[in-house]
Write the structure tokens for this entry.
Amino acid sequence: MNDISPLLSVSNLSKSFGGIMAVYNVSFEVTEGELLGIIGPNGSGKTTLVNLITGFVKPLSGYIEYRGRDITGWAPYKIVTLGIARTFQMVRPFYQLPAFKNLIVPLYSPRVKRMAGGKYGDRDAVALDLLEEVGFERDAHVSYKVASALPQGYLKRLELAKSMALRPDLIIMDELFSGLSLAEVASIVPIIEKLRVQGKTLIMIEHRLKELFRIADRVIVLNYGEKIAEGSGEEVMESESVKRAYLGRET
Amino acid sequence: MFLGTLVYGFINSSVLALVALGFNLTFGISGVANFAYGAIYIFSGFLTWILLNSLGIPYLLSVFISILCAALVGLAMYYLVILRVKGMALSEVMATFGLGLAIMELFRYFDFVGFRYTLPVFFDGSVAIGEVFVDAQRLVIALIAVGLTAFLYLFTHHTKMGLAFRAIAQDERTALTFGIDSDRVGAVSMAFGAALAAIAAIAILPLGTIAVEGGYEVLINALAVCIVGGLGSTVGILVASVVIGYAQTFTANFLEPHWMILVSLIAIAVVLIVKPSGLFSRQKELEERI
Amino acid sequence: MKKRKERIDRGIKARSEDIFALSSHLEMIYLLLPRAIPVAGLLGVAPFLSSYWREVFISTGVYALLAISWDMLISAGLISLGQSLFYGIGSYIAGALNCYWNWPPLFTIPVATLGGGLVCAIMLLPVLRLRGIYFAMVTLVLPLMFSRLVEATRILGGTEGLTGLTPFPNQLVALYVIDLALLSALFGFRRIIDSDYGLIVRAISDNDRSVMSAGFNIHWYKSQVVLLGAAVGSFAGAFGTHVDMFAGMPGFALDYSIMPVAAAVVGGMGTFAGPMVGAFILVPLSEILRALGALRIVFYGLFLVLFVVALPEGLFHYMQRKYHQCERWVEVE
């Protein structure tokens, strides 16, 4: 395992939707084991960037490399099998199914089968364990509740569990903290810490800057599709261009 | 020969455009699939005939009453049928289709079949364009088509109701938060669409006889134009009708007439595969394709 | 004291959910009855029908197969407005094999089923990427296109079609063949959908992006579903060819596309039994109304509208609910 070469490398990525540049000439690298934050005002292209990396959208130009392989333009399912998982900003579980059944689909993934050595094992038990890891209290039987009956905090954790079920090496979380109370965020942070201890690389798109800066190693800032700053949380918030982007002209 | 194709191609395109306008308004702009569109078209034709010939009502009044009745039928359909199945696309299609079927076949049952069922033309005689003779009715159709398209464009871009139509089409939830009553707008759009079907019928049916089969054909042609042009785009309708209209005329002149409908169908298939939301729609990639 | 209606599972349903169902006759009957009724009904009804009604039954069976095939496609989120594509292709393959090479029905039908399924699935491959309504529109247009193509190129008999094809030895044989086909399709598809594979298929219909981001190639899954549906539809076409002794443009008729959807809407989507029930209501109804002449289609259309508006969930869902759950008034504090 090479410590020098990055896990994920994005070079000069651009994407336009009907004439509007959603992402323009964005480049950055992520080293294995770090937690990178991506921040920026609304509409700055953060989700588009995630869609590009995970293959949901094809770039206009630029490259994406994962572990040295060019994955630009790959289909989402292939990228997942390589070990990249993502959560969605708009959480949409399978509402009619109980929470733990929601994990059946990712647990059936070809990647999981491969990593488990060809056998799927008892998926229900694995699902329940995973949910316990993300904070579904086992004795309260929350995992058996139908997804439509769960509040947002639990749904977000379910979303996280779905990505963890794939045994990924890189997890990209799109606004995981949005819609959560401070207490709920505080209860999810340990889960993220545990993922880091397990050696996973994380990219977090966030609006909750204070909470993000406490855990992120590095942060990049997007505005109108372009990368305008990169560095630690404090460094980035000192930057004039970042202040202007978030607060408007006169600061 | 070439001028003839040019002129008749344009006429054909205007017929298609005229037919598609009403369907596009209801389906593309307000999201309500009205598969009884062809039935309303035929209904207006027969109603005008009945008013004119059986009741002896003067032409203009008959036309006016027909258009009004068509609008009322559209309104009634919305409140009685669509409202209960709104949101379930398939049920909407089935319900309106069933209704359309009932209406069209009712006319067939009452023996409204035959060559005597025609509507009078607006003007007699023909006009010469270069060496090509075009009958006045066909020219009138072209004029009406152009005029209506312009009117609709202005309506949907510059009047409150028209803008409400487009708002509902783009994002119903947000429109609701602006106080736009989506049910009322939906009902009005359906009434409007039905009225446009009636206008199209009164303009186009004089070219031939009023036949129940025409209703099915109208539905397919309207669908073809709307799909190719892009649901909800008035400009798209124009371009699509020109493309399909000319393609049809060329095939009719240089190949054989029975290839004509094949052209429409191939056009639909190709567009749907290459750019599903139509040539001019503005739907984002992610919405039309996975 | 305010009251509200509460719906809960019947006691017997809860009891029969476990392996302990085997311990009581009542529970076993409860479980077997819904499955026994279609089997007994389909297989046992023949002796009671006159020759005319057997013909109606066979025709209903064909439509029911198309409806079941439709339901399989909708389980993956694919709305098909063109079941007649499967019917027509299956019909022509069987017809051509029989007409030009004199193959007997015993061979033409299986080959047409498989071949038709493959041909249609391959044809629809590029279209699978399209979302719901666009896919539906292409399926609506394709059979119409094929029909006109045959008319214009005059191949495969052109407008006259292929006539004088080999029939079934007798009506009863045809009836039992369609019976077996129906039962296999019904129970087979239900099995598939209830399996874990089926869960993934249903998940695709619910939230395809979620399934994609779980590492599944949903286009591969969708094409498999289309293959299954197309094969059943082609079987219906091949079967119909030998019943009618004819294969031609009417195989691509709108009727074969619309009736299955109507049957599914009336009977209840997603249950396979629902569309079958729907077909068994609508087709005989259409026959009974024949006495009314052209008025029949009017009544038919109105019936469709009324049913859709009054019972949007579909008949089978309603019956299922009544069978498994009871409603009662409960006091609310």
